[in-house]
Amino acid sequence: MPNVSGKVVLITGGARGIGAETARELAERGAKLALVGLEPEELAKVTAELGEGHFWAEADVTDPDSLQAAVDAATAKFGRIDAAIANAGIAPLGSVRESDPRGFLKTIDVNVNGVFHTARAVMPELAASKGYLLVVSSLSAFAPIGGMAAYTASKAASEAFASALRMEVLHLGVSVGSAHPSWIDTDLVREVAGDLETFTEMRKRLPWPMRAITTPDACARAFANAIERRKRRVYVPRGVMLMHWLRNLPGSALVELFMRRQLIKLIPQLEQEVRDLGRCMSERNQKLNA
What we know:
The chain has 290 residues and is α/β, with parallel strands linked by helices. Helix content is 53%, strand content 13%. It has eleven helices and nine strands. The protein has helices spanning 17-28, 40-50, 64-78, 101-129, 149-168, 187-195, 197-204, 216-229, 240-245, 253-277, 283-288, and strands at residues 8-12, 32-37, 55-58, 83-86, 132-136, 175-181, 183-184, 213-214, 233-236. It has a seven-stranded parallel β-sheet with strand order 3-2-1-4-5-6-9, sandwiched between helices. A two-stranded parallel sheet has the order 7-8. Helix 1 runs parallel beside helix 2 and helix 1 (17-28) packs across helix 8. The longest helix has 29 residues, at 101-129. Belongs to the short-chain dehydrogenases/reductases (SDR) family.
């Protein structure tokens, strides 16, 4: 696709954050959007903002039947799907030692199983259009951070899934890419920062580009460009590419030595903050994923 004008793009997690902002960017470039997510009021609001000719459907990416119904409805409306972004994701709070097991399991369900269900549901349409799938992974896939074990594991898994799927669908003419944003100024990041002061302190002490914060609109432009160019990798900001090349460095003894004193102090603080909150996710995500 040299451009996305007239193309149909389905986005999971399209109600807010990166998903909603990417929808706005793609709509400005002439694409038709099919937004999928758990918040019908927000989905309807974003879809109305995009203008005439767009579509939304309430669906849970952890429920394959629900997701398939949304994909089928989008296909019935537009006649095809040219690209999809597996964007829906959550992040739990706390360390492994102090975490609620339900938070870990839900994170894997949304961030890994949800990507699988999305890819499987849209693949017949992408095969028909020789389209493109973008899997939203993270910088965290190759730059692990203490206090984010569940999120890191899920995003590493989604990256590996995208790489394997890319080889599986070559013969179909389908391209698959993975996106690796760092911290994006979205509701997800702001909610965690609002709940946990230690989270913000830890992020500030990370080396660049692991501490960089990017605006949602900059991330949306990168995702839209990736769809137009069928990119294999997307880094937001571009400096994240360096961490991919040096992916063994963040988990090395050298970086552990650099972070050791800070982690010894900050991880117990993080654990106490999570205990005080009495929940394993942000308040909004706890309600959505109950």
